[in-house]
Amino acid sequence: MYIVAEVEDVVRIPPSLFGFPLKEAALKVLRERYEGYLHPDLGIIITVFDVNVEELGRILPGDGATYHNARFKVLSFKPQVKEVVEGIVVGATDKGLFVNLGPVDGFLHKSQISDKRVLFDERGGRYIIEETRQVVEKGDKVRARVVGVSFPTEPTARPRIILTMRQPLLGKLEWVEEELKRLSKVG
Hints:
Elements: E1 2-13, H1 22-34, E2 38-39, E3 43-53, E4 58-59, E5 66-77, E6 84-93, E7 96-100, E8 105-109, E9 118-121, E10 126-129, E11 135-137, E12 141-150, E13 160-164, E14 171-172, H2 173-186
Parallel strand pairs: 8-13
Antiparallel strand pairs: 1-5, 2-3, 3-5, 4-5, 6-7, 6-12, 7-8, 9-10, 10-11, 12-13, 12-14
């Protein structure tokens, strides 16, 4: 899920940025510091915006930079178990599919692609559902449910997101549309 959160911190403005407006310099420093950072409560920080910085700062002995209190907002992505996500298949191996969810990739084990038996076509780099001959491969848009999330302790590492498509109305988006059409005719 995407989260907008308000954060407070002290921002160090180096002398090389003294020629810029304070707000612009603070935004540059905060983006360099936070974007891509994995926060234990907020998830992966995508961007920093709406910076309010106190004009009166502090100078520490031996450091030419100024330090200012700042309040700012961050947009972050923190996947939740049971959340339904959509993404694009970016890779296929004999173990499963890698699905890009935006700021991070999720993994879809081959046993979680379908309730039916699936076969891996190594030459084509794709999975084929044996019974229906439906294919899922790199570039396909899919809908999946998050079944597991593991956040590493290192802030620059990426979380592991485990996905499934073994539930109704999940899978390749074309399959979902076909299922919805079929259900609307029945009901």
